[in-house]
Amino acid sequence: MINGKKTIIIFFCSALLFSVLILSGCSSAPGKSSAPSTAPTQSAAPSTVLVTSEDKSISITVPAGWNTNDMSLSPSGSAIIGVSNNQDYQYLIITRRAKSDFAANFNLNDYMADLKKDYDIELINPVWGQISSTTIGGCNALSVEVNGTTLHGKAEVYWISAIEGNNNYYCISGWTHKSKVETNQQIIESVINSFKETT
Questions:
Q1: How many CB atoms lie within 10 A of CB 27?
Q2: Residue 40 lies in a domain
Q3: Distance between CA 96 and CA 5 in Å, rounded?
Q4: What CATH number did the domain enclosing 122 receive?
Q5: Structure-derived torsion over alpha carbons of residues 12, 14, 17, 21, reported in degrees to the nearest 10
Q6: Which domain holds residue 85?
Q7: 11 in a structural domain
Q8: How confident is the model over 135-160, as pLDDT tens digits?
Q9: How deeply is 126 buried, as exposed, middle or buried, from its count of CB atoms within 10 A (0-12, 13-18, 19+)?
Q10: Which residues in the chain come in under a pLDDT of 70?
């Protein structure tokens, strides 16, 4: 009887060991993850767009969705880049003057003074902030914020940068409605600071 019990116990242990071995064979191979694989996601649309002047001499980067050729912002036709987002009241133009147009001792401060005269004519009672020296796109620059009312009676805020390039002076003027400053200032200043002279 004892031998019969031993036989039953041995048989039971052998069956249990066999079951463990079978189950082990169904597990994942060592080193391989059992986590489900995911299909590669489609790349997101670009969040910015590079805009270059017609002669490829300068470029800026603007948010995707902006009008990248809005020359209606410069009725005189003096702008070499005009960009806008009408829906959010974000506007920016770039003009330039050749250094050869000025006297040899003309400098960046003189150029900003000329720009101030122009805006004092174009705006009603403009209020000029403190002009600060900075660098934009590796070029020496002067930047200032101007609050004023247009000749059409719109209260607007401008961020103006006078930039000294290799052979030209550039004026970048970005603006928005006064009521939109909190939302738009950082976006417009980011576009201004993306300026690069490529030639």
A1: 8
A2: no
A3: 104
A4: 3.40.1000.10
A5: -130
A6: 48-197
A7: no
A8: 999 999 999 999 999 999 999 999 99
A9: middle
A10: 1-45
